[in-house]
Amino acid sequence: MLSSQIKSNEIVFGNCNKNLLEEIIFYGIGLGADFVEIFIENTDNSSVLAEEDFITSVSPSFGRGAGIRIFKGKKDGFVSTNDLTKHGLMRSVSQAIEMLDITDNKREVFNGLNKHRDYSLSKKKWINEVPSIHEISEKLLVSTKSLKKNNKIITRKGSYSRNLQEIIIASSDGTYVSDIRLHQTVGLNVIASDAQYRSSGSRRFGSSGMPNEFRLWDHEKAANDVFESSMNMLYADYVDAGQMPVVLANKFGGVIFHEACGHLLETTQIERGTTPFENKLNEKIAHESVTAIDEGISEGSFGSLSVDDEGMEPEKSVLIKDGILKKFISDRAGELRTGHKRTGSGRRQNYSFAAASRMRNTYIAKGEHSKEDLINSISEGLYCKSMGGGSVGATGQFNFAVEEGYLIKNGNLTSPVKGATLIGEAKEVMPKISMCGNDLELAPGFCGSISGSVNVTVGQPHIKVDSITVGGR
Amino acid sequence: MNSREITTQISKAADFLNLKKWDYGASFSNDYSVQVDKGDAKQLKASQKQILTIRVWNQSNLVGITTTSDISESGIKKALKQANIASDFGNKNESTEFSPLAKDPINVKEVKKRNPVGIKKLLTLLREAEVKLIESHESIKSVPYNGLSESFFERVYANSEGAFRSYSKSQAALYLYARAEEKNKKPRSSGSVKLGYGADDIDIESCIKEASNKTISHLKYSSIKTDKYLICFSPDSFLTIINAFSSMFNARSIIDGVSLSNKNSIGEKLSTEALNIYDDGLHEKNISSTPFDGEGTPTRRLCLINRGRIENFIHSESTARIFKTTPTGHAGLGSKVSVSPDWIVVEKSKENFDLKTSLVHSSYEGEFVYIEELNAIHAGVRASQGSFSLPFDGWLYKNGKKISIESATVAGDIKYLLKNIVNIEPSQEITTSGISPHIWVDELSITGDA
């Protein structure tokens, strides 16, 4: 029997669900919706934790659910459910319609779903290609053993997480898409201690769509890096607070752009009226040395996607070109409410969140300077080799913890310092990024925002900020 | 399937797989929420969720676990099979057992469950609140972050030895964060959150008033000079700090080596004898209270700091066994069982002769910094090292005047902070995360950009 001939009263992954999905969309349009979107997912995840020389946690999970979004004018109703039967999905459509209080007689036209765009065909084998729990455990234990380099290391942890997400997206504009996504991440953490001194070190690595990536991960190099970082910081003094120039390292240093500026370029911020850049398109918002990009297409990067959570292929968006604001990151609701064209950036943590405009792989493009050029240009300042997390407040203030920092004196790196926090506002800091290095690198991370936690990549070359507030003691 | 049917289903499937020992935790919820934007409905949301976590013990008494949202007959069978496979990798070094208290009576004074008011009423209430908040002051231009929600949920714990607990309740939440703008000044924002058992229980007027007053109070702002200051922590900000460093009282964190405390820290003096801290998940003001934890252990009030000294740690079943004590009702349910506090209550003890009682935030005329709210906790707290560096909203009180601090961080060490408490004001305030009086701390570093 051809799969298209299978008649089911329930969404079944691997089968053709076109007739059922069309029936549900027709139902929503018939009830007066301007637009109906169905997002269905099936997940198969597992995580493993190694502590010291033992596996202490293995956590598999699986699940399925649907998120149904109905638009009427510029408002939307969103209903999520674990019930994937026809009855359950129609009930969810009814609930969303009822919430929106649709009473007019205007009916949109739905011409049925387009030809199925199936991005999952070459990915179905992934579930059999990813490492087994046994294989993961073995490598994590080797990794944590590699961290045991001296008796000052008092805790050692290695963690692995794999998320396999199978999705179907169908909407009343004809979108009909399937995909399978694979994300793997592995992290190492240590705490070092000596008398009253304590430090920690951590690194995280991640990939998308590459089942073999964990096998290829250089755990020895990672362990050396984490160990050295913790040892360098063990006896570090607290940094003195004040205004100073800083050099931010490449890779995860890009979190500063992500938090301080990237979020303010999402159309959700325009909708709320909380971005200072709302009316600054084609105006200078950053130093001319800054070009910034958000894209979902770099092969294997943690924030890459074949298709976003609204069924659009991701584009490479040049957000800032030579300091001039060129584009916002937009999703369907963003386009509807702000007029900025979709960029393939509609993303959500899972079916229980409505998609929103979210970053993917976001980075400052490389410049022409070497790392040494940047450091040599500073007489007194701070080198932020490794950044911790950060956040941005409701009025644009940001702060970032510096995990590993060094004082710069007379153009040279000197003593390590701890307890530093970078504080500022994007509008004021972006024009102060005066030098960009030639060593762009990306790093994986998780970004939490309105539509949940999504996988992203941050990145940059080494950059110099002429002056920023450094919080300390 | 209801919770009894799930238990029967798991029992049957476990028998089929020859799994003699199992337990599970499940939660079922229906949530409704609305957001508005200048009088219009923005997003209306409803969700129905179910989560089941099953643990099984294999013949070597190793534990495996699986979590699923598929609570069908086939989903349950698959979960048990996966948990059984995962048990091959169970932790050989630290065994897990059922809580010895999983069948003890639980303390449910009153079922706090309200009927849903429905999306339309939620929307009406939120629209009205937004309008009132915007109209409360000419500088308040919008309420960019707002929401009103109601949730109805049931939690279940059961095990193969016949323990069965079920608890259902409702909860509603309102948050309003206003944005104020004045010419040639930076926008300022602040807000308020209120909880209730149902939407009708929420004091909407006080939420509006609080959000408005806080936002307006930040309109006149100035940067602050980097220096050490006398600090008054609001009840909310002090509870934030205590929760951020709750690993000091957490037996799991102690075993894992990520706590500032160790097994022998019971009795260690951390602060003034005037300080008592309890964890009291069942406190009548705790809207989010649940009568049992993830392992089925009854929730109870526990003294963490008594007269400035560590009195107890919070435990799961396995950490309690290692520490030769009883579980305290603070466990999650996971492959590695987590431990966390429920609801912190800070009190002034009777031993308060060493306090500077003239320090009262509403009347003290000397210079001090009032910290209203701490932000970015995930980024600025190093719990395993004891250090913090956190941005905050607050005011500088100087020469009888109060001025909002533009942008600043407070940095320090939790042990230093606790040791330098110089006053605990007499009256406590109820917040969404616990109860505390205002707490005064001497000589903490503030970084500003003045």
Structure description:
The complex is a heterodimer of chains A (473) and B (450). Chain A has helices at residues 18-30, 86-100, 126-129, 133-146, 213-216, 219-234, 255-262, 267-272, 332-338, 371-376, 426-429; strands spanning 35-51, 54-72, 75-81, 117-118, 153-171, 176-194, 197-208, 237-238, 242-248, 292-295, 316-321, 324-325, 346-347, 356-357, 361-364, 380-392, 397-409, 412-418, 421-425, 433-436, 441-449, 452-460, 463-471. With 473 residues, chain A is α+β, with helices and mostly antiparallel strands. In chain A, strands 1, 2, 3, 4, 5, 6 and 7 form a seven-stranded mixed sheet that branches. Chain A has a six-stranded mixed sheet with strand order 12-11-10-15-22-21, with helices on one face. In chain A, strands 9-16-17-19-23 form a five-stranded mixed beta barrel. In chain A, strand 16 and strand 17 (397-409) form a beta hairpin. Chain A is globular, with a radius of gyration of 24 Å. Chain A starts with 17 loop residues before the first helix and ends with a strand. Chain B is α+β, with helices and mostly antiparallel strands. Helix content of chain B is 20%, strand content 38%. Chain B is built from nine helices and 19 strands. Chain B has helices spanning 3-16, 73-87, 119-135, 204-217, 235-244, 251-256, 317-322, 377-380, 414-419, and strands at 21-37, 40-57, 63-68, 140-159, 164-180, 188-196, 221-222, 227-233, 275-280, 301-306, 309-310, 344-348, 368-374, 381-382, 387-398, 401-405, 409-413, 421-430, 434-447. In chain B, a hairpin with a 4-residue loop joins strand 4 and strand 5. The model of chain B has no long low-confidence stretch (mean pLDDT 94). Chains A and B meet through strand 1, strand 2, strand 3, helix 2 and helix 4 of A and strand 2, strand 3, helix 2, strand 4 and helix 8 of B.
